[in-house]
Design brief:
Two copies of one chain form a homodimer.
Chain A: H1 8-19, H2 26-36, H3 42-54, E1 59-61, E2 69-71, E3 78-82, E4 88-91, H4 95-107, E5 112-123, H5 125-131
Helix pairs in contact in A: 1-2, 1-3, 2-3
Chain A binds a DNA duplex through residues 2-10, 25-27, 39-44, 46-48, 50, 66-68.
DNA sequence: AACAATAATAGTAACGATTACTGTGATTAA
DNA sequence: TTAATCACAGTAATCGTTACTATTATTGTT
């Protein structure tokens, strides 16, 4: 495995992921980092997002509607997708609950369960407010 | 909303989804239905899979590695993705557990949670067998 | 500080999955 | 049987992502 070399672009991508709670798509990361590196390439963004995901410094989140999202929070946690506005939000369950779900699943399952990720669906508070006006 | 008309192609797609437990990709559905309708179009398969998903007769499953999978089982249940062989398997939790997770999540969340889907990761029993030989 | 080795980049082309378009054929209700 | 319209096959276009290549940046060594 080749040694990892520092790059300012990767650092900028990491910082953006760390500071945002938006679960941006690769393109959204690109548009942001472009402000600091006007001629960064979209391929560079993808390569680094995948690299960060591989070394455990980012998480890739698949949703049924469109491209993957990326998250700088790597501790186990879950997500909520609003059916109305499409926003992806963090949703924390306490550690115990997370582990319980995995244990419960393991009882009904014939292999080894290492982790899990739950995507919740519904309507976010912002959309509820708007539709009740 | 336009009225739905019967089509033999859609019926064939539905039957395939109902009889398989493979969580096929759109392309896999295409290849299968092609046996019965040799000149069915891939676009027709996509259109019908999305239609069935919209009317609640199929489920679309997003995974972090590649294209979406489709499932004819529409009752709430979860899935397991084997990190070794990439197979996607059904994983059932009892109803009570499913609802408990949603309720638990609702306590920590500000919107309305209607449903959830958990993807478990790990190693399936087949891969465990193979690597222990 | 200069060098050599090599990882990372920008830019662009290619790719796979999915959707959109168009003219033709099938289904439906009258 | 007809008229309306939905669904189709075939194809082109789009979107998200990856691969390629020549150049630039980083790193360890003199």
């Amino acid at each position: 495995m080749a040694a990892l070399k520092y790059s300012r672009q990767r650092e900028s991508i990491k910082h953006f992921l760390a500071e945002t709670k938006d679960h941006p798509t690769a393109d959204a990361v690109y548009l942001h980092v472009k402000k600091e590196f006007p001629n960064i390439s979209l391929g560079t963004v993808y390569r680094n997002l995948n690299l960060l995901t591989d070394i455990g410094e980012a998480v890739k989140i698949a949703t049924p509607d469109g491209g993957d999202r990326f998250d700088g929070r790597v501790e186990p946690h879950n997500h909520f997708l609003c059916k109305k506005c499409g926003r992806l939000l963090d949703l924390d369950l306490d550690m115990r609950s997370l582990e319980e779900v995995n244990q419960l699943a393991a009882e009904n399952f014939d292999g080894i369960i290492e982790s899990s990720s739950t995507l919740f669906y519904g309507e976010c508070s912002d959309c509820i407010k708007k539709s009740s006006q």
